[in-house]
Predict the 3D structure of the following.
Amino acid sequence: MGILLASVLTILVVESFPKKLFFSFAQPLFRTTQKSKKVLLSKRISDHWKEKVLLKYSMDLMKCSIILGLLILALLSGLALGAWGFDWIFHPTPTTFEAISSPFGWLAMTLVAITYLFIRNRFVRT
C-alpha cells in the first residue's frame, strides 16, 4: 500500500513542480558554464580580463546553483510532507515514508514519474 501511495504522491509532485521556474534557472547555468569555458580556452583574452569576467560568471553560477538547490529542497520537502500526510490519514503498511526512503521506492517513483510524463506529453495536448 505504501508504494501505491508513493506513486500517487509522485504524480502529484511531478504535476505541481514549477518546470518553467526550474528551467529559467537551469538554462542560464548551462549557458554561463559554456561562456566561461570559452573565456578560459580563448588565447585572445588576457589573464587580467579573464579574472574579471570569470568572477562575474562565478557569481552567476553560484546564484543559479543556490536557487536550483532551494527548488530541489522544496520538491523533496513537498514529497516528505505528502508522505507524512498519507501516513497520518491511511496508516499503510509499510508506511509511505518507508516506501519513499527505500531504494526500491526511489526506483518505483522514478519509473512512475517517467511513465506519467511520457503519457501526459504524448497523449494530452495543452
In short: The chain has a mean pLDDT of 94.
